[in-house]
Design goal:
224 residues; alpha/beta; Rossmann fold; 7 strands; 41% helix; globular; binds guanosine-5'-triphosphate; binds magnesium ion; binds zinc ion; metal-binding; Hydrogenase nickel incorporation protein HypB; P-loop_NTPase; nucleotide-binding; Hyd_mat_HypB
Length: 224
């Protein structure tokens, strides 16, 4: 077997597990988001805001992927969400087997939304299907505007981009408008939200999108 064949066999096994997960999520009408970003872009900050805004209307559970610590799942629980930690022990992405191993810790019948915070990395997480409905990339202005061009596969595979830290625009040469242009160059159909998790700007439209997506998924329960 060549290296390429082994790699294809591994991702094919992952895709089968991910399809099983997708069917289970569909059976319960649970919306699943796969959150991908560079380290420090604001994935956990966005989740904290989302849980505070929507936690009284919906049951939100979070799977936290992190190389070593429990820091993010502690933040999620503090914000009022259900949190399960996967430590990859240095691994650079989550895979469907890891998600399958922890999913029984949630009561899917009493879950409206699962968000999987992937390991902070723009390179490979997007290649590993986790059974999600939607892949969301969080990218922040402090990373510069060229990340969609440098990591095109990740942006091409996503359906939604959240541009975070727009409060810092006055201090940076990067602008949200330029970043959005580069996002649309790679993926013209992308839904783009511009937010500041620190200042709270722009989050209403994001929360509205999440709430509508949850309701839509509940309505088509059972059909993966
Ligand atoms: N100025 C500013 N800082 C922010 C904003 N959102 C998050 N931060 C800060 O950015 C840092 C990283 O935020 P996190 O939410 O931990 O980012 P993350 O993507 O979850 O990071 P990892 O899980 O380590 O990859 C923290 O110090 C946050 O306070 C924002 O909108 N504006
Ligand atoms: Mg985090
Ligand atoms: Zn990886």
């Amino acid at each position: 077997m060549t290296t390429l064949e082994i790699r294809q066999a591994i991702t094919a096994a992952n895709d089968r597990l991910a399809e099983n997960l997708r069917q289970r999520f569909a059976d319960y009408g649970v919306l699943v988001l796969n959150l991908i970003a560079s380290p420090g872009a604001g994935k956990t900050a966005l989740l904290e805001k989302t849980i505070v805004a929507l936690g009284s209307r919906f049951t939100i559970n979070v799977i936290e992927g992190d190389p070593y610590t429990r820091l993010d799942s502690e933040r999620i629980i503090h914000a009022g969400g259900g949190g399960v930690q996967i430590n990859t022990e240095g691994g650079c992405h989550l895979d469907a087997r890891m998600v399958s191993e922890v999913i029984d810790r949630f009561d899917l019948a009493d879950t409206d939304l699962i968000v999987i915070e992937n390991v902070g990395n723009l390179l490979c997480p997007a290649a590993w299907d986790l059974g999600q409905d939607v892949t969301v990339v969080v990218t922040s202005l402090t990373e510069g505007t060229d990340k969609p061009l440098k990591y095109p596969e990740t942006f091409a595979r996503a359906q939604v981009v959240v541009i975070n830290k727009i409060d810092l625009e006055p201090h940076l040469s990067a602008t949200a408008a330029d970043l959005k242009t580069n996002v649309r160059t790679i993926n013209p159909d992308m839904s783009v939200f511009e937010v500041s998790c620190l200042a709270g700007t722009g989050l209403e439209s994001w929360h509205h999108w999440v709430a509508e997506a949850i309701k839509t998924k509940k309505g088509i329960r059972g059909h993966a």
